[in-house]
Amino acid sequence: FVHVPIPTRNILPLQRANAQPVLSRHPQRENKNQLIYGKENEMVYVFIRINSAGTVLPCSSEQLGTKTWMDQVYKWTKDTGQEIQDSKYCSILENGSLAFKDFGPQQSGIYKCSVSYSREGKRYTRHFHFFVRAYHRPDRSVEIQSAFYSPLCSSATNSIYIHSFLEHLNGLVRNLSCEVFEKYTKCIWPSQERNHSEVRMTVLMFPYGVMWEIHCPPESMSKNCEQDIEDRSKEAYERIHHSIEVLNEFQIREGNLPPLHYKAGSLLAYKVDHCKPGFGKSNTTDGCSNCCIACSPGLYSSLNTVTCATCPLGSYNEHYGKTECETCTRSLVTYHKGATSSEDCVPDISRLVLLLCVFTFGVTPSILFVSVYIVMRLFFPRTKLGKALLHKELEFLHKLTLCDGDTSKKPGEESKRPRKGENSFQPLQAAPNAVGPLAGPEAPPPEI
């Protein structure tokens, strides 16, 4: 029997986060009120600590600096095509720079800037692109494991055991501003001790409790939170170790339950990291590999874990830093995980196939055919048969005008065209270090 009130996933060993992460493949660091210049024909990656202010993105490169031209016109947009206006989160300065005031996960995304100007009687335009992500340093905690022997093994008794255990541990560390929470409890029957089960309890101890950022705010650069957390965690664990391993003080005094017997040597502790809901670590993120970064569209995180999970089938997420995915409405489905738009929700083609098969072949062959169809489409989409079924789906939906009323396009082409509000330039799909010209109707700028 397992009692799991607070599920967690993929808890990793504690690592020390970089206080000042690299912002792009060309080393730049985030300091207060620092200018982060763009690079023509290249995406600049920027990581901004949540709730911080002072990061400024000039609509220019380091080579151009503050150079001015005649009739300059600046325009900032996001990857959705929405034009950026002054708000409580950001403002556009007189020189065309974008200044962030209170950066949050919802402000993450691709920011595009274009500056048009006149020179020698001709009109020119330069483009700059920034991929801005919100991040925070990992929350630190200690995972503590212990085992006890008991003649009982059930979810009900596990709940009582862990409740009493948490009360005992919190009483030991409360004056250190630490809090202890259950991760999971399970019992194993039979155990090494005759006629007894082994109750294994795993808890998480937060040095400042779950609201530790009140004591160590993300924007604080003066307080040595790392060392403070290390000292608190060490002292708290020493108290717990002395009480459980040395004195064997923990006793169950609730109801008529039999006592627990501590399994000598079972007390273990590990330092772990946690990300806030809506954030997760990414080992592939260039320049901020140990940061908790806002989950991208198509991903989410709902608990204090270290990874972002993929939106399951039948759901989607269009925004950064979300704690849950939206469910497709009106019985619509998605044929792939990690959907990023409501447009990925389509009619369940298997129902239409079933009706057509029943009408044509009868009930039994139809059920068998549809079962094979669903298995191939959902679990083997990369096989030749799976791809062929997908092509037939698109062709069928295309003819029914469910996907696109323009019959001049071939099936599958509609998935390549930009959605409403999107620009044809898709930097998210490019390699991080890719460099290439951005085509446009304007004349190329002359060399400076």
Automatic annotation (TrEMBL):
<dbReference type="GO" id="GO:0001669">
    <property type="term" value="C:acrosomal vesicle"/>
</dbReference>
<feature type="compositionally biased region" description="Basic and acidic residues">
    <location>
        <begin position="406"/>
        <end position="422"/>
    </location>
</feature>
<dbReference type="GO" id="GO:0005576">
    <property type="term" value="C:extracellular region"/>
</dbReference>
<keyword id="KW-0812">Transmembrane</keyword>
<protein>
    <recommendedName>
        <fullName>Ig-like domain-containing protein</fullName>
    </recommendedName>
</protein>
<dbReference type="InterPro" id="IPR007110">
    <property type="entry name" value="Ig-like_dom"/>
</dbReference>
<feature type="region of interest" description="Disordered">
    <location>
        <begin position="406"/>
        <end position="448"/>
    </location>
</feature>
<dbReference type="GO" id="GO:0007339">
    <property type="term" value="P:binding of sperm to zona pellucida"/>
</dbReference>
<dbReference type="Pfam" id="PF07354">
    <property type="entry name" value="Sp38"/>
</dbReference>
<feature type="transmembrane region" description="Helical">
    <location>
        <begin position="352"/>
        <end position="375"/>
    </location>
</feature>
<dbReference type="InterPro" id="IPR048806">
    <property type="entry name" value="ZPBP1/2_N"/>
</dbReference>
<dbReference type="InterPro" id="IPR013783">
    <property type="entry name" value="Ig-like_fold"/>
</dbReference>
<dbReference type="InterPro" id="IPR011641">
    <property type="entry name" value="Tyr-kin_ephrin_A/B_rcpt-like"/>
</dbReference>
<dbReference type="GO" id="GO:0001675">
    <property type="term" value="P:acrosome assembly"/>
</dbReference>
<keyword id="KW-1133">Transmembrane helix</keyword>
<dbReference type="InterPro" id="IPR036179">
    <property type="entry name" value="Ig-like_dom_sf"/>
</dbReference>
<dbReference type="Pfam" id="PF07699">
    <property type="entry name" value="Ephrin_rec_like"/>
</dbReference>
<dbReference type="GO" id="GO:0002199">
    <property type="term" value="C:zona pellucida receptor complex"/>
</dbReference>
<keyword id="KW-0472">Membrane</keyword>
<feature type="domain" description="Ig-like">
    <location>
        <begin position="21"/>
        <end position="129"/>
    </location>
</feature>
<dbReference type="InterPro" id="IPR010857">
    <property type="entry name" value="Sp38-bd"/>
</dbReference>
